[in-house]
Write a structure and sequence with these properties.
about 500 residues; alpha+beta; seven-stranded mixed β-sheet; five-stranded mixed β-sheet; 18 helices; 24 strands; about 40% helix; globular; binds glycyl-adenosine-5'-phosphate
Amino acid sequence: MAQATDSLQKIVAHCKEYGFIFPSSEIYDNLGAVYDYGPFGVELKNAIKEYWWKSMVQLHENIVGIDASIFMHPTTWKASGHVDSFSDPLIDNKDSKKRYRADVLLEEKIDKFKEKGQKELEKKGIDKNATEEDKAKASRDYAKGVELEKAYTEAAQASDFARYKALIEEYEIVCEISGTKNWTDVRQFNLMFGTQLGSVAEESNTIYLRPETAQGIFVNFLNVQKSARLKIPFGIAQIGKAFRNEIVARQFIFRMREFEQMEMQFFIKPGTQKEWFAKWKETRLNWHLALGTNPESLRFHVHEKLAHYADAAEDIQFRFPIGFKELEGIHSRTDFDLGNHQQYSGKKMQYFDSEINENYVPYVVETSIGLDRMFLRVMSENLKEETLENGETRTVLSLPPALAPIKVAILPLTKKDGLPEKAREIEAKLRFVGRTFYEEKDTIGKRYRRMDAIGTPYCITIDHQTLTDNTVTLRDRDTMQQERISIDNLEQFIADKVNMNTLLRKLV
Ligand code: GAP
């Protein structure tokens, strides 16, 4: 029975050993929360990008793509609200000097109370779908979790950071290193990385590495609308790097300082945002489900504390090995961004709607997913330890074939008798189907195992029979079944299975 791994550490180790992800600058003892993608990682990452891009741009007549620069005029970030509001509440432990995010400390404490409470409820036989009120009545710990959650939500909505500290003290949250409750006050810390443009270091020359790709879309809104002759409703999609000076940068590629986003801004008529928000929630959930995910591993989470630009926001959360966490955000951004850019730049950001003969600043519904976080999700759900009938175990990465870094491995049974030459001939043909891998070293069993571990859906073995009847053995990664297939049918067979269209067709 195959079991998805429940350990982040196993994923980290697997990613390193099999060339998916390496810590950045490892020979200098790494750079915190920055990672490099290796030979198989970059292929998987590119496949995820392709799945997103094609589903958004190719399958939607009214969505186009752009590729904006990372550096933008500094006023962009004043207008977007990031200079004033893009910050995290920090708190230091005075004894260990370790810095924490105060909101994360409180959220983790709520989760701990509820998890402990849940165990108590299970023992008492209380249904896991019972109301929060009933659960709180039946378990003291659960009640504490609910009580703290309420107080924290109120403090968050009022941006009352003194109350954060009071709650941390009241609920006796201690530093994991010193074990003490000796906390500083909570301070706001801006997450943008600043740098200097040109050779003179003046305050006015400070520019920022973009903390989200979205603003490159907003400032180009009219350029794109006019040049691509778009009519509202329409969308602009982009994939690109974003940078945030994250303080709590743990959990591998879940929270990084340099990461990639896949964002789409959908421009709509003011007043239609509820309808479009619901539509994009559904479309994006289907995109995730088409990967064959267990529906119970995905859920929506409504934001209690809205970002400075949103009038509604929900996350699609995924059950990572570290628990249910945000994977993608769907935000109703109103006319906040275009309105502010209009005000700060003095340039009109309006659209003339010929159907109603009116000019207006469009509203926006955004879908925003972290590419690296999506990578972690794909790894989490597909990396499995399987116990075979003979009692042996194997590690298998059961990726959807369209995402697999290597589509097919070509393995001559031995290094002699003309088998490598025949195998090379077949490999050269299959390159046009997708990335191939040729390997003649080690036993066939070991070679299969290595391909299982990097997620290769098909292995073909060239043996002596191949030379006489033009057939090869085709092995399926998931079932491990082997069948003989004519070389003439190989290319078409594999192409049909690994093609990105097999995924995309599920979406229409
Ligand atoms: N434009 C809206 C925006 O940036 P966000 O919720 O801050 O919204 C969107 O980020 C997505 O980007 C998140 O759902 C997450 O997948 C990803 N993301 C955000 N911060 C990240 C980080 N430090 N490391 C990796 N991914 C991150």
